[in-house]
Amino acid sequence: MKRPETPFPRHWLYYIALKIALLAGAVAIVLKLYGMW
To answer: Any idea which UniProt keywords this protein has (predicted)?
Structure first.
């Protein structure tokens, strides 16, 4: 698997993990706003 080109090639895994964490946080906020969680 070739590493994707990111601003930080050495930390591309952390970069992807951060994106997933931000997405999960946004989903959690939306669910809380709609009273589903």
So the answer is: Membrane, Transmembrane, Transmembrane helix
Q: What is the pLDDT along the chain (37 residues), one digit of tens a residue?
A: 555 565 556 677 888 899 999 999 999 999 999 887 6
Q: Is 4 helix (H, G, I), strand (E, B) or coil?
A: coil
CA count, 13 A, side-chain hemisphere, 30: 6
> Which residue bears the tokens 């906020």?
29
For residues 34 and 32, what is the distance between their CA atoms, to the nearest angstrom? Answer: 5
